[in-house]
Amino acid sequence: MASSLKLADPSELAGNWLATPRAAQDTDKSPLVASNECLIDFQPNQTLGAGADCFTAWLGEQAIGWFPEPDGIAITGKEGSKILFFNRQFEGLYQGTLQSGRIITLKRPTR
């Protein structure tokens, strides 16, 4: 059976994305605040450019690349395996959950 989800072309997702972490239960006690936002460059060749160190710090392992999936965006590590998945919420907004339960939103920055 064919899927109704369209696989995005990498060129549609390449470019800058704003990544913002928050606690699973968004409270004032969360140690992660808006100042922890990172601008991450999703390069056309499906590698991560500037800002990739944020994913690396949040995940505890090196984030190297990315690829589109029908329902989101996958972030890959050194071995090319998926280390984080962002579910598509709607056009230009994705959300992923770290093993710690912290949620990271990924959205296109406003111009």
Automatic annotation (TrEMBL):
Identify the keywords attached in UniProt to this record, alphabetized.
Metalloenzyme inhibitor, Metalloprotease inhibitor, Periplasm, Protease inhibitor, Signal
Main location class: periplasm
Give start and end of each Alkaline proteinase inhibitor/ Outer membrane lipoprotein Omp19 domain. Answer: 9-108
One Pfam family from the record: Inh
Q: Is Aminoacyl-tRNA synthetase there in the keyword field?
A: no
Report one GO cellular component: periplasmic space
User: What name does the UniProt record give this protein?
Assistant: Protease inhibitor Inh
UniProt subcellular location: Periplasm
Q: Say which family it is in.
A: Belongs to the protease inhibitor I38 family.
Q: Name one GO molecular function term.
A: metalloendopeptidase inhibitor activity
Keyword Transport present in the record's keywords: the answer is: no
Superkingdom of this protein's organism: Bacteria
- InterPro entries according to UniProt: Inh (IPR022815), Inh/Omp19 (IPR021140), Protease_inh_B-barrel_dom (IPR016085)
